[in-house]
Amino acid sequence: MTSSTTIRLDDDLKKELQKELDVAGISMNAYFVMAAKQLVLQKKIPFEVLTEAEIPNNTTRKAMLLADAKDEGIIPDDSPSFNNIDDLMNSLDED
């Protein structure tokens, strides 16, 4: 026995999904049934859930470049290091 389910999708998302499924030769119904069966079998979402990449602001972009440059040895890493939490906290309190 099967039952009917209604899924509401944004029109643009539905068009993109249908396009990808057509290329794969899979109906939308078959896709949702496969995803549901895998969730039940695996007890988890059967694919990696991604979000749209956020564009970093200038401050974040500069911090990323600085970290990369330190990792590559282009500039010295003069970041302090600590052997215990007390030293770290004292350093933070000084600023």
Average pLDDT figure: 90
Element-level helix/strand string = HHHH
Radius of gyration: 25 Å
As for the CATH topology of the largest domain, it is Arc Repressor Mutant
Q: Biggest β-sheet: count, sense, barrel?
A: none
- How many DSSP-defined strands? 0
Uncertain runs = none
Protein name: DNA-damage-inducible protein J
Walkthrough of the structure:
56% of the residues lie in helices and 0% in strands. The protein is mainly α and 95 residues long. It has 2 domains: 1-48, Arc Repressor Mutant, CATH 1.10.1220; 58-94, no CATH class. The model has no long low-confidence stretch (mean pLDDT 90).
Features of the shown structure:
95 residues, mainly alpha, Arc Repressor Mutant, 56% helix, 0% strand, elongated
Report a brief summary of the structure.
This protein has 95 residues and is mostly helical. It has four helices and no strands. It has two domains: 48 residues, Arc Repressor Mutant, CATH 1.10.1220; 37 residues, no CATH class.
Topology:
Elements: H1 11-24, H2 28-42, H3 58-71, H4 85-94
Organism: Lactobacillus johnsonii N6.2
Protein name: DNA-damage-inducible protein J
Pfam family, one: RelB
